[in-house]
Amino acid sequence: MNWTNLDYFSLQWTLPMALVNKPHPQTLTSLTLKNLLPLPFVFYETEAFARVLSSLRHLSISMHGLDFHAHGTEAMWSLMWSRTIPLRVLTPPQPQLTSLILISDQPVGVVPLMDLSGLFYPALRRLTMGGMTFDEHRCMEDFIVRHRATLNSLVLDSCPMFFGTTAGAPHRSWATVCARFQETLENLVELQVWLRTRWGWERGDRNRARRCA
After folding, report:
1. Domain range summary for the chain, segments of one domain joined by +
2. Other Cβ atoms within 10 Å of 40 Cβ, number
3. CA dist., res. 45 & res. 14, Å (int)
4. Are residues 12 and 41 in contact, defined by beta-carbon separation less than 8 angstroms?
């Protein structure tokens, strides 16, 4: 699909707007928004959108930004991951949420920074993170470990380790991360680690090389 297609832009606007304009959006329990473009539409800022999120048991968000970087829209990409996603999509109270999928087709979390500190879903059992960057500050780790009492399934899909600006080994190793998970995630029964063969649109498992764990 070509991101320049005006119909696709229109779809990204009209469907969520129809959702937030429903008379009783609280009846929705599952929401999947796939291959979103990094456009900070106004509906993200509305109370109606927050009400939609409040009743969800399953939330899946994937964002596509590969082509956008080639067209000088890095500012919108950064705004979506540093503000809109953490503050407008993930922060509204979602006490019934049991499943969360959060995928970027480009590495995010460090650059652009995405702060997940303070976010907690008391019923979360299944978590998938794609393209989320791990580093020595352990923001992504802490978010995962914060749900140790309920989390039983964890999927890490092409989540890189940040090397910083200097050559050599990263400040934190995957061995250390996995050791922490083994020690703290007391109810985890499923762990999957995937590696992409290329970045781009979400197309199921066709752009995954293999399951590593």
Report:
1. 6-211
2. 13
3. 15
4. yes
- Structure-token match 């109370």, residue found: 47
How many Cα atoms sit within 13 Å of 143 on the Cβ side? Answer: 24
Measured in residues, the chain has a length of 213
Cα separation, 64 vs 162, in Å, equals: 21
DSSP output for 117-147:
TT---TT--EEEEEEEPB-TT-HHHHHHHTT
Phi-psi region for residue 87, left (φ > 0), alpha (ψ -120 to 50) or beta? Answer: alpha
Q: Which residues pair with 130 in a beta bridge?
A: 103, 157
Which residues, in sequence order, are CB contacts of 186 under 8 Å at separation 6+?
148, 149
Do residues 54 and 26 make contact, with C-beta atoms less than 8 angstroms apart?
Answer: yes
What is the rounded radius of gyration, in angstroms, for the C-alpha atoms of the chain? 17
User: Which residues lie below 8 Å from residue 85, measured CB to CB, with a gap of 6+?
Assistant: 61, 63, 102, 114
CATH of region 6-211: 3.80.10.10
CB 149 within 8 A of CB 188: no
Q: Is pTM, for the whole model, over 0.90?
A: no
Please state, in angstroms and rounded to a whole number, the distance separating the CA atoms of residues 213 and 209.
12
pLDDT digits (tens, 9 = 90+) for 97-153: 999 999 998 888 888 889 999 899 999 999 999 999 998 888 999 999 999 999 999
CA 201 to chain centre: 14
User: Does the pLDDT of residue 49 top 90, yes or no?
Assistant: no
